[in-house]
Amino acid sequence: MRTPRLHVATLRGRWRADRGLLLLAGLVVALTTALTAAVAPLAERTADRAMAATVGDAGSRSAVVATMPEWYDDPRGKTRDPTTAVQVRQDADYADEALPPEMASVLRPGVTTITTPDLQLLDAGPGRFLELVHLDTPAGPPAVSWTRGGPPRASVGPRRADAAVGAGAGPWTVQVAVSETVADALGLQVGDRLPARDEQGREVRIRVSGTFAPVDEDDGVWGLAPRVLRPAQGRSDGVPFTSASALVSTASLPDLRLGLPADDLTHRVVFGPEPERVRWDRSAALGRSVVGLQSSAGLARGDISWDSLLGGVLDDGRAQVASARGQAQVLLVGLVTCALLVLVLAAQLLVRRRAGPIAMARQRGAAVVDVAGELLVEAVVVAVLAAAAGLGVVVLLTGSAGWGWAVAVVLAAASAAPVLGAVAAVRAAGGRRAPANRAARRTAARAVRLRRLAVEAAVLVVAATSYVALRQRGVVGVDGTDGDLTAAGAPTWWALAVAVVLLRLLPPVLRRAVHAARRSSGGSLFVVAARLTETGSRALPVLVTTVAVTLTTLGAALAATEREGQAEAALAAVGGDARLDASPTASLDEAARRLSDAPGVRAAVAARVEDGVQVSSRGLTETVRVVVVDAAAYQRLLERSDLPDAPDLARLGTAPDGTLPALLLGDDALRDDPVLRWEGASVPFEVVGTAPDVGASVDPVLVVDRDDLADAGFGAAPGTVWAVGPGAEGALRAVDTGSIPVDTVVGLHDELDRRRDAPLPSALLRLAVVASLLVLALAALGAVLAAAAEAPARAESLGRLRALGIPDRDLSRIVAAELAVPVVVAGLVGVASGIACAYAVLGSLSLERLTGQSGPPAVVVPWWTVVAVAVLVATVVVVASLEWRRLRGRPLAELLRS
Fold it and tell me: ABC3 transporter permease C-terminal domain: from which residue to which, for each copy (predicted)?
């Protein structure tokens, strides 16, 4: 194939003549390239923020815990080791060095914890338990201010620092310090000597050296031993109990090791993550490091045993990011498709304007390759410069850019005009001659129809295939990270298939309209119908309008569905309009009753919510969320709120055989002879119905009535208060809790703002809005280009009608109707297609991973999606008005001469 000959003067002349259209095509390329190129760097940064937020919100679940080997106890007797604190620091350093580099780069220095089981205090009756805790960080113990007394000291002087204790010796004394809240809850004073014993009856003496208040109560170190600051209170077997923790200092740590057997001491080093250091691109390697560390033999070989849920937390975060990337890809595929269709439409208009020069060039001997070569040079220059401008802007604003989608846009923009120009050149030279034989002409026409049917069938088959792929595997790729392009293109192929069907139905409908218009009074309707048979079923304009409106409607539905799903998830997570969380205590019942009478509060109820409670059923054991609540009061609260009703709450108290009745939501395998592990005892229960979704729990939910649990011999002091009503949050914040230690008050609006401001949902929402607006702008541009393409033929036809004496008012209506009717039809079909597509597709996009719901959110299609059609109609009406003014400006004598 020979090299095309280019005529530079012709290129310059064509550029000057059509610079407006070329600049318009370049603008489309630049905008599309800029948006698609900006998605990659912004998506990576958003993914980093999302991973950091996921790890940060996980709290203690994302910590890495190193459990040290158990200390050795000589059965002949023990010796007090004054170097215990030094050994503990060395163990922490050893654990830190054992971390893989991927984990060490994202973890904070370890915090050492040495804890005992709950020791029963024997000085003032049952129900009083104290855990002994030693906390140590690389910077030293957590900062406290002493209110009475002082820090714990060694129980012996320096001369007896290495004292030996025989096997039959009495209990050893360990000095501890307690917080003010623990001292008040247990009634302790400085100097108290407390006899205590563990579950095996082994005794130890505890001496209170002082009371303290934390310098920074929000310091994360206190979260490793929460009962140091907030003791737990409740009832067990009808007996009230209080469980708290006391601090063991570095000086008294050797006494703790001497006073209690080694199997009572749990020595751990807890490494908390630094969320800002967790990156999306390194999260997979980090997760593998966690798995590899946990798979070591650990304590079985006398070494460190590692445990962490960080791998699961990272998997959850990666799943959310992968879903968001897939959803973004759905929007980008639609946007790029619309941009490509508009670029082809612009190239078609450009070639139509140059039909005369192309035909003249062919008559003068120019080859088809010469015509296509000149158009290719022009198109490549425009596309490359526009794409470079778009990429440059993105690099300046974000520092980097993704170029994958830009290649497709540049290729389409550079190839559309040369291909259409080559076809026009072939036709100008008479390359397609009609055969003289009638049978041959019929065969040729049949071949054309078969080719069109093949193209239409191919579009429908690909649309069906992509939809099946979307339904089967969603928008997340096989590797769980990158989006699946086949599934992500399902909505776009859906829109193309609808447009193909519309193009097949339009011609017969328009022909019937012509026949019906013949019997109408006046000629305007007949002229409009006749013109529409020629212009109303053009493929590209119908494709652009139908596809763009469909995708605009889908984008609006996606944004509205996400926002509504976030509202429902926030309501479920809060449990009402506001929620108060506090340490479990019976005083919350009275606070809830007072709250019910507060202005603006429709209902309030106190409950005990416990996560991680074990339920066993025929060999199956799972952790569930247990909710102990007054069933009647909770049902009234649900009825007076927007929360889903739970009619099965009325069934509590009706279980046969005197077993504990309960409602279960989740794993149905737990319904066979279930047993609840509550406060160290096994409680059989009977599932009598389905529980409501309390707090949007990931685990199964078990709801029991408080009185039913009390009849079974167990208590559950409430630790949560739910309230509904416009004044619920203010009333909860203002309620007089007395001595109740309140952890937090969560309002519905605050929770909803937190969810909507999260990195992934907010980024996807912005992308959906921007992509929908840009697609709508492309649809309007496509309508303008389609009107400009048919403008010469329409001007000639209307000029003849005007010369024949048809009134100007009728002619203006003809122009408006000819331009508006195809847009209205294609736009309304696009709206209907978008609504159907939203209901068919959104359930497979894993939106629940971003909204925080347990299942796919209910689809919401805003009513204002029809505004897209109104915008397009207004655009073509303006174009029709301008075109009519230009037509009226031509003198009538000129029309008669033409």
Answer: 770-882
Which tokens is 406 given?
């830009």
pTM here is 0.85
Rounded Cα gap, residues 454 and 443, in angstroms: 16
DSSP string, 786-797: HHHHTHHHHHHH
Most confident residue range from 137-141, 354-358, 398-402: 137-141
Question: Quick one: average pLDDT of 165-179?
Answer: 83
Give the tokens for residue 146.
């002493």
Judge whether residue 697 has pLDDT over 90.
no
**What gap in Å lies between CA 751 and CA 397, rounded to an integer?**
32
Q: What's the rounded Cα separation, in Å, for the pair 726 and 720? A: 19
- Measure the CA–CA gap between 412 and 387, rounded to whole angstroms: 12
CA nearest to 193, candidates 214, 163, 172, 167: 172
pLDDT of residue 858 exceeding 80? yes
430 has pLDDT over 80: no
Query: Can you spell out the DSSP letters for 220-261?
Result: GGGGGSGGGTS-EEEEETTEEEEEEEEE--TTTHHHHHHHS-
pLDDT in tens, 39-52: 888 888 999 999 99
Nearest to 413 by CA among 129, 795, 23: 23
Q: 57 exposed, middle or buried (CB, 10 Å; 0-12, 13-18, 19+)?
A: middle
Q: Which pair of tokens denotes residue 623?
A: 């952790």
Contact 670, 685 (CB under 8 A): no
- C-alpha 92/C-alpha 136 separation (Å) is 10
User: What is the pLDDT at residue 832?
Assistant: 95
Of the candidates 463, 460, 488, the one whose C-alpha atom is nearest the C-alpha of residue 474 is: 488
Q: How many CA atoms lie within 13 A of 575 on its CB side?
A: 24
Mean pLDDT score across all residues of the chain: 84
Rounded Cα distance between 97 and 755, Å, is 38
Residue 686 in this model has a pLDDT that exceeds 70: yes
Would you call 175 helix, strand, or coil by DSSP? strand
Element (H, E) at 723: strand 720-724
- List strand residue ranges (DSSP E) for 346-447, in order: none
Among 265, 275, 289, which residue's Cα sits nearest to residue 102?
A: 289
Distance of CA 388 to the CA centre of its chain: 32
140 beta partners: 137
CA distance 715 to 707: 9
Cα separation of 110 and 317, whole Å?
A: 24
Cβ–Cβ under 8 Å, residues 570 and 755: yes
CB 256 within 8 A of CB 248: yes
Nearest CA to 728 out of 751, 761, 756 is that of: 751
389 and 367 in contact (C-beta within 8 Å)? no
What per-residue confidence (pLDDT) applies to 478? 45
Contacts of 255 (CB under 8 A, 6+ apart): 80, 154, 155, 156, 172, 173, 174, 175
- b/e burial code for range 504-535 (CB count within 10 A of at least 16 → b): eebeeebeebbeebeeeeebbbbbbbbbbeeb
**Cα(532)–Cα(452) distance, integer angstroms:** 21
pLDDT at 84 > cutoff 70: yes
Query: Rounded to whole angstroms, how far apart are CA atoms 76 and 263?
Result: 16
* Burial classification of residue 617, based on how many CB atoms lie within 10 Å of its CB (0-12 exposed, 13-18 middle, 19 or more buried): middle
Indicate whether 889 pLDDT > 70: no
The residue assigned the tokens 């026409």 is 445
- Helix (H), strand (E) at residue 195: strand 193-197
Q: For the chain, first and last CA: distance in Å?
A: 44
- CA-based nearest residue to 49, from 396, 289, 317: 317
List, for residues 535-574, the tens digit of each pLDDT value.
777 888 999 999 999 999 999 999 999 999 999 999 988 9
Q: How many CB atoms lie within 10 A of CB 639?
A: 13
